[in-house]
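By way of example, what follows is a protein record of this kind.
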Amino acid sequence: VKGNKEFAVTFATTAGLAKIAVQPAQIDFGYVPVGTSPVAAGVVLNVGSADLVISQVEATALDKESFKIVWNGKELVTGTTVVLDPPTVVKPNDSIDFSVLFSAKDDKPRAHDLLLHTNDASLTTDGAGIKRVPVKVNSTGPCLLLSPKAVVFGATPVGQSKEQVLLVKSCGDEPVSISKIAFDTPPGPGNFSVLWAQLKESGGKEPTADAPLKLAPNQSVTLNLRYTPDKLSPTSASGSVTQDTAALTVTSNTAAGTAKATLEGYGASSDCPTPIITIAEGDTVTPQTILHLDGKQSYATGGTIGKYQWEVEQAKGSVSLFAPNATSSAVTFQPNVAGDYLFRLHVWDAGGKKSCAPAEKKVKVIPDQAIHVELLWKTPGDKDETDAGPGVGTDLDLHFAHQYAAGQDYDGDGKPDPWFAGQYDCFWFNCGNGNTVEWGSYDPNVDDDPSLDRDDTDGAGPENLNLTLPEDGKTYSVGVHYYNDFGYGKSKAIIRIYIYGVLQFEVTSPDLVKGDMWYVAKIGWPQAEIETAQKSASDKSPFVTKKYPAPALD
């Protein structure tokens, strides 16, 4: 450089900066069948040279009924912005894990964003330091939907044919190429067939790998199906008929690879009206889910449906009813007890002819919390335990107490009683009807507080208690208080304890009378060890305290 000129030189470096990377860059569930709950795993990496600090996880777009997030080993509340306290710190060249669970209650496409608030100064597009992680369901790439998932032919006269249609739709943003449509073997097609000549989009021929059926995004075709029974289908003493069944699998270039529809029908002596049940929530739900059962797809050849009749075989201890009644075309039903429920629907056509056999659908009710406790009871003196209202049945109360619960020693075991011990005993007074107790972390985003999700005051139960994130190193106590008999006399209580949806403990009490306090069990965490409560090591009898001095809370 000659002369006396001045030059300004600017040096820049990325040393000392945090840099976030997320793998995969997009959480894509692909196509998710209704009733399933897949989990997608992800990793957050720090590829910079300074500590990566993540202060918030913004999950406002992910509804809490469908999505769950486990962040670095802890479950976060979706549908809101979670402030991480303390913030998550990822060292250079280190990483943390997270996962997203999606519970499919329908097959609608979803596209949401998970926003991570960080100290990565290079991020500006979505806001300073914000890393956007797209979360997609049923919305990217080639996607295929079959509707209905179950094609019901119903009663079909022997030797005659009945036809139904299966809608095949491209639901993604890329074309679908269908290389095969075939019946599963076994059992094979049986009395079912596909009317290929009517599939104009494939030239009236069955698609193959060399000549696939191609569907543009949002395009759909109709697959015509036929059922021709060759004999009468057997019927059981209860009226249930043994259906002819088959499964039709559609093979394509979607991420799932295949989609499946079931076909069912039965041979009858005459053409009866056909009942069809659809359940919006699917065949696997959690307790207290309100099921929407619809029979309006039922049909009568050459006529209309004039009458409906619903029935249910409930899980043991459940006494739920159809609403508004059992004769509406569409009803709701709330299963409050875990277990299996078998729904049946009979229909009559406008001329009074009844369906040859009922339609049947089974629903499994499975708790999804870490700890789920059910209380049910039987009162011989109450002749109708399904009626509702003040004083029309007995009132037993479920108690779930934290290890810190410490009341007076009324039961005489030499230790503080866990019952009616302020916020550390969760029961109807402080833990239900909008009331909450504060256990564990004070961070509202940590779901470690119990909830009494159902309080029953007029007989039979159930009462349900749930705890999503129990505390490690803590013991929880389960008890039952006979609050009021309203003149109906003694009752027997049943306690069931589920751990992660699996029944691990069930016990029935001796006869209980008004004022009794039954100390049922203790649950140790994280081992999930359940032991029957005892007054002493030598006393194996049920731990029941008579006339327990409960406070007046009405």
User: Anything to note?
Assistant: The chain has a mean pLDDT of 90.
